Amino acid sequence: VLANAGKQSTPGLEMEGMWQPSDAWRLTLAATFLDPEYDSFVGASGVNGPEDLSGTTPAGIHKVTVDTSTTYYFDLGSTQSFIRGEYTYADKIQVIENVPAEVASAKVSTFNGSLGFGWSNGLELIIWGRNLFNDEYLLSAFPSVAQAGSYSGYPNQPRTFGVTLSSTF
What is the three-class DSSP state of 1? Predict the structure, then answer.
């Protein structure tokens, strides 16, 4: 079912910044603060069928999102190297209107890390890990087909590790 809200407002504030206190350290911060609301949404596809969602918070929009990172650059022998940590936080939301929040809600608290080495010949090696603390949440959800009262969802990626090798020439 596809439907359009009559009117939705999302006032907010977004900010980002970077501070490099020395050649070796770089810190970043980005934050978004939103106040989303359906001003008018009659006939929305809700948990119990068509609903009037006017005056409610739209699903899938975090009111607070914060991304931060710190990177330390250093020389290791003949390599220009770095170590980086990244953290993402987003407050709890209902993922989608037609699936109950107790079934499909999401609160994000994810930490990533990487270690990189670069050589003067253009070769670069990065060892990385994503979602290192194995944060679990749903990206999307929907009522299951042909099974009333059942729901299906798509989870975020689990903890992953990898190596990237690249060359600039």
Answer: coil
